[in-house]
Design goal:
The chain has 332 residues and is α/β, with parallel strands linked by helices. Helix content is 42%, strand content 14%. It has 14 helices and 10 strands.
Length: 332
């Protein structure tokens, strides 16, 4: 939540990448308690405008299907000129109707070839179009994961190396039908140039990296959030149960340790932001927990991270990070 906003997205775009703006949890936290939809919509407009003022490069906006106002946010982003919509945390079976603009690239996030095939089949039948790309997110990603806890205990079976060839095979028929390539962007656990090169060898057209970019100067999270990454050891990276009913990967901090010893933290649902959240049964409010960490109260906040977060040892600029990766990649 809020990890990638205009500052980080524009810096990535300026280095030739696709800068992705998060649409989740934007706006003044207090104002959103009474005017959630209006505040989050207006905040997204501001973030897009700020990013546009800082770059002429490519920008995308990421949306979670479980957001209560996801359709409104998608339409808002498109009105503001966004041409690449990334959609995760839910099946985007109706996304072409919501976007309703053939010039907008629609890129679902999937965790298996099976889910991608379902999306492709529905879009082909009902809208006569196909996806403009897929982000294939493996089990080493941060935040919410599209895998069961049982699947996460079998990382080799569900690794990107296994998942990617299966997805590419599914895409062939639709690429032939629509006469164009459907690129796959590999994500989840991509840390260095060797990881990038391996994904390219397997057939990926690109990679998505998130964890590495948290510890950049341009990332807008609190210094305390970044320090938690720098201080983390491998054993601190854990799988948690999220209030939205999915497993997630985060840093085991004081907040998570408190949850281990307390049956439930006292909560009140201030936003009604997630359709999948069972607020009356939840052990904590995930929106507040993520916002706490963003603003620096990490002792009372959730810190999502990828599997390799413990490998980060310094804060660098986006330019330094991308230049270093490209230099290493060229040397392989």
């Amino acid at each position: 939540m809020r990890v990638s906003l205009s500052s980080l997205a524009s810096a990535v775009a300026n280095e030739g990448g696709i800068g992705t703006i998060s649409s989740i949890g934007l706006g003044d936290p207090e104002a959103m308690k009474t005017e959630y939809e209006t505040m989050s919509r207006e905040a997204l407009v501001r973030e897009i405008a700020k990013a546009r003022a800082m770059t002429d490069g490519h920008l995308a906006v990421n949306f979670m299907g479980v957001l209560s106002n996801v359709d409104d946010l998608i339409k808002t982003a498109i009105r503001e000129g966004i041409k690449l919509v990334v959609f995760g945390a839910g099946l985007p079976t109706k996304l072409p109707a919501v976007a309703n603009d053939s010039s907008v690239n629609l890129v679902p996030i999937v965790s298996s070839a099976r889910v991608a095939e379902l999306i492709l089949r529905v879009w082909d039948k009902h809208y006569g179009r196909t996806a403009d790309g897929f982000i294939l997110e493996g089990p080493l990603a941060g935040g919410h994961l599209g895998f069961s806890k049982d699947q996460l205990t079998r990382p080799d079976e569900f690794s990107l190396d296994c998942l990617l060839p299966k997805l590419l095979e599914v895409l062939k028929g639709y690429e032939d039908k629509y006469g164009r390539k459907i690129p796959v962007i590999a994500a989840g656990g991509i840390f260095d140039a060797q990881d990038i090169a391996r994904m390219f060898r397997l057939g990926a057209s690109g990679v998505q990296m998130a964890t590495r970019f948290v510890c950049t100067v341009e990332c807008g999270v609190s210094p305390e959030f970044k320090q938690a990454y720098l201080d983390a050891d491998e054993e601190d990276i854990v799988i948690i149960d999220s209030p939205v009913g999915m497993p997630g990967r985060a840093i085991r901090n004081r907040f998570l340790r408190d949850l281990e010893t307390k049956e439930k933290l006292p909560i009140r649902c201030p936003y009604r932001c997630l359709t999948a959240c069972k607020a009356e049964k939840a052990r904590y409010c995930i929106a507040l927990a993520l916002l706490n960490s963003y603003f620096g109260d990490v002792d009372h906040g959730l810190i999502f991270c990828g599997h390799n977060a413990y490998r980060i040892k310094e804060i660098v600029t986006v330019k330094e990070l991308i230049t270093g990766l490209l230099t290493e990649l060229a040397a392989l």
